[in-house]
């Protein structure tokens, strides 16, 4: 009977079986299949619960956000302090207007709206990540910014760009976490 999916219920044995018997191997396959199904279920549950909450942005979304928030008239940010100001003003503060509007609409003594809670959670998570250290595209490098503006959002092209880790707890430190493999970045 090839192709039949055996379950632990169909393999119930009244007496003990030999460790190298056909039934023992069937039982091992059934247990392995059950374990894989449970693991897949846990992964789906984690993904479903992550979608329900306001999770921090994915890498592609974060890069696109930084590129779109950077003004067109600037070819790059002049120094690390300007980079920190850019993050705290534009990136972390991009939802401030909507949050203020939602807080104004909220009636006293009522529960917060779902959108308000999502935005507050998102803002708190991003601020925590910025405090601990956040990996961002290097906007102080003019070549890197030009490459990012030409980029169409392909996730496979991410290794081409230069990334740095910066933190609000140490504003003088900037560590290169990905030097970028693009040929225009090699000489810089």
UniProtKB/TrEMBL annotation:
It comes from the Eukaryota. Pfam families: Tma16. GO terms for cellular component: nucleus. Belongs to the TMA16 family. This is Translation machinery-associated protein 16. It comes from Malassezia nana. The gene is TMA16.
């Amino acid at each position: 009977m090839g192709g039949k999916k055996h379950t632990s219920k169909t393999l119930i044995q009244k007496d003990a079986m030999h460790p190298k018997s056909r039934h023992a191997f069937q039982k091992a396959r059934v247990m392995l299949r059950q374990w894989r199904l449970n693991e897949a279920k846990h992964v789906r549950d984690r993904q479903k619960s992550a979608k329900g909450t306001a999770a921090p942005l994915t890498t592609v979304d974060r890069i696109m956000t930084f590129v779109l928030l950077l003004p067109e008239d600037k070819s790059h940010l002049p120094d690390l302090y300007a980079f920190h100001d850019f993050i705290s003003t534009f990136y972390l503060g991009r939802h401030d207007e909507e949050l203020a509007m939602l807080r104004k609409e909220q009636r006293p003594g009522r529960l917060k709206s779902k959108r308000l809670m999502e935005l507050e959670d998102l803002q708190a998570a991003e601020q925590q990540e910025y405090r601990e250290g956040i990996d961002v595209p290097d906007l102080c490098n003019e070549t890197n910014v030009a490459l990012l503006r030409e980029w169409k959002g392909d996730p496979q092209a991410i290794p081409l760009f230069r990334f740095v880790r910066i933190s609000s707890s140490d504003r003088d430190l900037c560590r290169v976490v990905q030097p970028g493999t693009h040929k225009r970045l090699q000489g810089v």
